[in-house]
Amino acid sequence: MEAYFDNNATTKIDPQVVEAMLPYLLETYGNPNSTHTIGQKAKVAVDEAREIIASYLNCLPVEVLFTSSATESNNWALKGVAEALASKGKHIITTNVEHSSIEKTAKHLEELGYDVTYLPVSETGHISLKQVEDAIRDDTILISIQYANSETGAIMPIRDIGKLCRKKGIIFHSDATQGIKYLDMNVETQKVDLMTFAAHKINGPKAIGCLYIKKKTPIVQLIDGGQQEFNLRAGTENVPYIVGFGKAVAILKDVREERLAYVKHLRDMFEEQLQKNIPDILLNGGEPRMPNLSSIAFLGIPSDTFLARLDMEGIYASAGSACTSGSIQVSGVLKAMRFAYERAVSTIRFSFSHENTEEEIQYAIRTITAIARSIREISSQR
Ligand SMILES: *Cc1c(COP(=O)(O)O)cnc(C)c1O
């Protein structure tokens, strides 16, 4: 049996998405910037995908900008706004648990003379509105705070922060690459000026991203060149992937609530059983958190050993984020939550999806319980 529990790293593409993309790979290969028929057909497809996403976000199509990834969107949001507002101020606020594409971009801006405040999260992985409020200065130009954390599932108070930013006239960006799966993406209610997300976390193709940019937000281009994307992001549009992105969002629209309830049911069953079966395990994080996420410390068992054993049994999970796996470094997010070393190095992240079945969960519970017992037995005999 195989059980894929690494859906926060990426998801399996939906066959309906592939089907929607194929004609734009095989037949309608024109450049949307060309004026002939085959080019214009490609343009129509891009426009349609943009409209689907705009309607999902409750914004205008011109506010939906396609990029190569969530990584590019995050780079663009921070660098673009920072450059556009440099004469107004140079202070930026973010958190100490952002994705590397925010963290490294913020560090880069520090090298260019910007001043960045990294708000520390609580032991459950959250930040509070009060922390944001207290960090705001006269020269604060931009606040960038993720919607939901990929490692702990912590959901941040985006709407309240957005409201505060509107009141103070500060630009607000949120990395919603995880949030999009289960949370409200209405940009009006969430009060964001910029919002990042990507297709491959919602069963779309990899390497296609989006940046929502509210009209009149001061921002400069990251990618210079042609006049694509309303003269804001150069380069020939990735037509088939944009079509796939649109399809993935169109599907999500109808099933988000249903998927949320289902994955939460699987996750709760998983956590409840494991807690009954295995002593000395700790659940990481706390509410509010994403319904598909379970971060568990199996005390005394190094996560790399555990993951290798799980992999042999066809169970695919991760330690920390995908970007930090493969190295023995302790996850920056768990460090930020001030976890003891022992807890951090024994933590495994299981991220479920609507495609997982109860059978898979039961199989995983049995297997994880058996592996944990056998590893602990071996180490206690030493
Ligand atoms: C996956 C992810 C990203 C980066 O996505 P890419 O497709 O690798 O660019 C950014 N932020 C969050 C919160 C993510 O989960």
Provide structural commentary.
This protein is of the alpha/beta class and 382 residues long. The chain has two domains: 3-9 and 256-380, Alpha-Beta Complex (Aspartate Aminotransferase, domain 1), CATH 3.90.1150; 15-252, Type I PLP-dependent aspartate aminotransferase-like (Major domain) (Aspartate Aminotransferase, domain 2). It is 44% helix and 14% strand. The chain has helices at 15-26, 37-57, 70-84, 100-111, 129-135, 158-168, 187-190, 228-231, 239-277, 303-312, 332-336, 341-345, 358-381; strands spanning 3-4, 64-67, 91-95, 115-119, 140-144, 171-175, 194-198, 209-213, 281-283, 293-298, 315-316, 347-351. It has a seven-stranded mixed sheet with strand order 2-8-7-6-5-3-4, sandwiched between helices. The chain has a three-stranded antiparallel sheet with strand order 9-10-12. The structure holds pyridoxal-5'-phosphate (PLP).
Count of helical regions: 13
Helix-and-strand structural type: alpha/beta
The proportion of residues in beta strands is: 5-15%
Within CATH, the superfamily of the largest domain carries the name: Type I PLP-dependent aspartate aminotransferase-like (Major domain)
Short description:
The protein has helices spanning 15-26, 37-57, 70-84, 100-111, 129-135, 158-168, 187-190, 228-231, 239-277, 303-312, 332-336, 341-345, 358-381; strands at 3-4, 64-67, 91-95, 115-119, 140-144, 171-175, 194-198, 209-213, 281-283, 293-298, 315-316, 347-351. The chain is of the alpha/beta class. The chain folds into two domains: 3-9 and 256-380, Alpha-Beta Complex (Aspartate Aminotransferase, domain 1); 15-252, Type I PLP-dependent aspartate aminotransferase-like (Major domain) (Aspartate Aminotransferase, domain 2), CATH 3.40.640.
